[in-house]
Design goal:
Layout: H1 4-16, H2 22-33, E1 41-47, E2 54-60, H3 64-72, H4 78-85, H5 92-95, H6 109-115, E3 122-130, E4 133-142, H7 150-167, E5 184-189, E6 192-195, H8 208-219, E7 224-231, E8 234-243, E9 253-261, H9 269-279, H10 284-291, H11 295-309, H12 314-324
Antiparallel strand pairs: 1-2, 1-4, 3-4, 5-6, 5-9, 7-8, 8-9
């Protein structure tokens, strides 16, 4: 029977999946787990979505060498197959009941070369799955032999779904910014795009011009950018958020989400360009030169823009554009519009 302390620890680990700072939550989860199960060391290992490599997300107690081995080498051992195929996380204690000596982990090279020299006599490993996908591993080790019996295996199994949600880099990306259920969303990094469970990939990510804008946003270290972007004949409201709360490579990602839209206020694509440049503080003359138009044509676009948006002045129209993201910026324009910290331009 679970003790009150173990129940409280399992509840706390479940609650940590709601934290926005996932990296900190992963570390706290391991320390909380130490209050429920005997352990002298623990590591939470995640699966890099690009390379397929296993990387440590959080760890306590292991030396760097052992941590690296548990992330990189363990998956090449026969014991890894046991972990991913058994319904309960295997332990070294329970492994002693294997049919043949060859099947026992403590008789293998990894135990002899990595685990035993570090002083550990018992260990337990679970395969983490989130939405049916394998996302990583949880390793626990202790210097005390026989610590991880069947009850301990069941307890770890009970908290593994929460640990999987913490280790999965895509788990809460869409929830962090309260995205509409219909919004397409993905995480973009310098290495590629990570698709999110239950979300379509934004169409704008297939546009080379937009990818240039995304690279400029990343280089500018922006926190958020709202804009309008065309793909073919369709327009989309697009928001970029710097995703700074995930483990590993995803901490360097940008969350891109889009929703289809018509051009607001009945603006034409050219009027949107004029409005964007006006919001940058450009005069009609400068806008005309940049868009290869006559100043008279630009003046007409400004008049139409004011009438359509129901604004009384150029300043009011540009304030509306910045406030509502009625912008179609080029990469070199981002310094005017990117939000560098929450709630401020």
């Amino acid at each position: 029977m679970l003790s009150h302390r173990q129940i409280a620890a399992a509840t706390r680990i479940g609650m940590l999946t709601r934290e926005r700072d996932t990296a900190a939550a992963c570390a706290e989860a391991l320390h909380t787990l130490a209050g429920a199960l005997p352990q002298d060391a623990a590591t939470l290992v995640g699966l890099d979505p690009f390379t397929g490599a296993h990387v440590q997300v959080a760890g306590i107690g292991y030396t760097p060498e052992v941590s690296e081995a548990l992330a990189a080498e363990f998956v090449g051992t026969p014991w890894f197959h046991n972990v991913v195929t058994q319904p309960l996380p295997p332990s070294i204690s329970e492994d002693s009941h294997s049919d043949t000596a060859e099947e026992r982990f403590r008789n293998g090279w990894f135990y002899e070369q990595r685990v035993r020299p570090a002083g550990f006599r018992d260990g337990m490993t679970g395969a983490l799955r989130h939405h049916g996908r394998y996302v990583g591993l949880i390793h626990l080790s202790t210097e005390r032999a026989g610590a991880y019996d069947t009850e301990a295996r069941y307890l770890l199994a009970n908290v593994m779904p929460a640990l999987a949600a913490l280790a999965d880099p895509t788990a809460r990306a869409g929830d962090l910014h309260d995205l509409p259920e219909s919004a397409a969303a993905s995480l973009a990094t310098a290495d590629g795009v990570i698709d999110l469970p239950g979300r379509a990939r934004p169409r704008v990510l297939d546009d080379e011009g937009f990818r240039g804008l995304l690279r400029a946003f990343d280089a500018a270290q922006g926190e958020r950018l709202r804009l309008l972007w065309p793909v073919g004949r369709d327009w989309h409201r697009v928001v970029l958020h710097r995703h700074g709360h995930g483990p590993g490579v995803v901490r360097q990602a940008v969350l891109v989400h889009e929703t289809p839209t018509g051009l607001p206020y009945g603006l034409s694509p050219r009027e949107l360009e004029v409005l964007t440049r006006a919001a940058m503080g450009q005069t009609n003359q400068v806008i005309a030169q940049g868009l290869f138009l006559s100043p008279r044509t630009v003046h007409s676009h400004v008049e139409h823009m004011l009438r359509k948006t129901g604004t009384a002045s150029r300043a009011e129209a540009t304030a509306l554009a910045v406030r509502d993201g009625l912008l179609r910026p080029a990469p070199e324009d981002l310094a005017h519009f990117v939000e560098r910290h929450s709630g401020a331009r």
